[in-house]
Structure formats: structure tokens, C-alpha cells
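Exercise 7. Predict the structure of COX assembly mitochondrial protein from Cuscuta australis.
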Amino acid sequence: MHPPLTLHRHPMCAEIIEQFQKCHLDHPIGKFFGQCTDLKIKLDRCFRQEKSVKRKANFEESKKLKERLRAYKKEIDEVSSHESSFGQA
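Solution. The predicted structure, encoded as C-alpha cells:
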């Protein structure tokens, strides 16, 4: 089973999606007997590749966010330790 075949959700696979949908239209009975199987395999591979690219981009973004959070926490700790040293004097 494949995800919904909307072109805007899968820009990397748009060409294969169009071919696959055309195959289903051109072969309404044959699609049940493997007429479009080669395109389905290509589509599955494309979806996997697209998912891998998205996963890698999300991972890189999360690393950036973690680094920003770490820097922010360090800054907050420095400010609070600086304020507490003034309070003790």
C-alpha cells in the first residue's frame, strides 16, 4: 500500500506518480494482473528515498535546535550565577 498520491506531498516522485496513475487509467483491468507493477516498485523506491532525505534533513535541524538550546541554557546559567554573586555581596 502506498501513501496518498498527491503531487504536492511528494515532489521528488511527481513524475513516477503521474506515470503510475496514467498506467492505472490506461489499464483498468490489467492493473490487477501486474500491468503497473514495475512502476509501483519504482514508486516505492522513490518514496523510501524521499523519506530518507526528509529524515536526514530533520535530524540536521534537530541538531541545530539542540545546540541553540544548549547555548541558551548556558547563557541563562551564567546570568543567574552572575546575579546570585551580586546578591551575596
